[in-house]
Design brief:
It is a single chain. A hairpin with a 5-residue loop joins strand 2 and strand 3. About 35% of the residues are buried. The chain is α/β, with parallel strands linked by helices and about 240 residues long. The radius of gyration is 19 Å and the shape is globular. The protein contains eight helices and seven strands, in the order H-H-E-H-E-E-H-H-E-H-H-E-E-E-H. The strands form three sheets. The protein has a three-stranded parallel sheet. Strands 2-3 form a two-stranded antiparallel sheet. Strands 6-7 form a two-stranded antiparallel ribbon.
């Protein structure tokens, strides 16, 4: 046994800060070791993703194929170190392509050390069926958020066919994070329009409006009022509620 003194116990805010900074540190160290990748977005979005995974999502790291789990989609897939750090720290367990549990972590520290290297479970973009905890391959900008709309439609179909009064089998939600590049793509607009038309209240997009692309400021090519566009679709702000 070991004695624990009051000064060794972290309060809730200190623990939150430690977790967030650990996500950041893992992310920037992996990018530095690989000499490629995108450290800025994981640094900025670590508090957001920590909050979603720790406070909002219903997700069991020990059972990442639980059918009614909430889904997380990283549409700006170039920021994937954010996801690899989170999967590692939550000790999300691995399953194979046949959905058989393997009894080992989905993303190990060695995988993170070999970020963007051959056979690492921390590739340069999220890859479905290669890394457990990845709900869809994302990388082409706009692809992830468009897929998230399909996921939300799928949940509604399952609920309509299998839920019964007082016995909800399917009521999961989909959370998608996207960046400026995603919202520049036409596919994201079409998907958002459909989501609003169908009234998909089980879907939440988080827009990382950081005003920067590889070429420089987004003002070089993207000056529209994104909020006004989504309001025109009839999109409401706020996280989806449990039905």
């Amino acid at each position: 046994m070991c004695a624990t003194t009051a000064k060794n116990i972290l309060n809730s805010a200190e623990l939150d800060e430690l977790c967030i900074n650990t996500i950041r540190t893992l992310s920037i160290d992996a990018v530095q070791a690989a000499k490629s990748g995108h450290p800025g977005t994981p640094m900025a979005l670590a508090p957001l993703v920590y909050t979603i995974w720790n406070r909002i999502m219903n997700f069991d790291p020990a059972d990442p194929i639980w059918p009614n789990r909430d889904r997380f989609v990283l549409s700006n897939g170039h920021a994937c170190m954010l996801l690899w750090s989170t999967l590692h720290l939550t000790q999300t367990q691995a399953v194979n392509a046949e959905y058989e549990r393997l009894g080992q972590p989905s993303v190990t520290l060695d995988d993170i050390r070999r970020f963007r290297q051959l056979d690492s479970k921390a590739p340069g973009h999220p890859e479905y069926h290669w890394v457990s905890g990845v709900e869809t391959t994302s990388g082409p900008l706009g692809h992830g958020v468009a897929t998230s709309v399909g996921m939300a439609i799928g949940q509604k179909w399952l609920a309509a066919h299998y839920n019964r009064p007082g016995f909800e089998i399917f009521n999961y939600r989909i959370f998608a994070v996207c960046g400026d590049g995603c919202l520049m793509e036409g596919v994201s607009s079409e998907a958002a329009s459909l989501a609003a038309h169908l009234g998909l209240d089980n879907l939440c997009w988080v827009y990382d409006n950081n005003h920067i692309t590889i070429e420089g400021s987004t003002r070089i090519a993207f000056t529209e009022d994104v909020e006004a566009r989504f309001l025109a679709y009839g999109i409401e702000e706020g996280a989806p509620e449990r039905q």
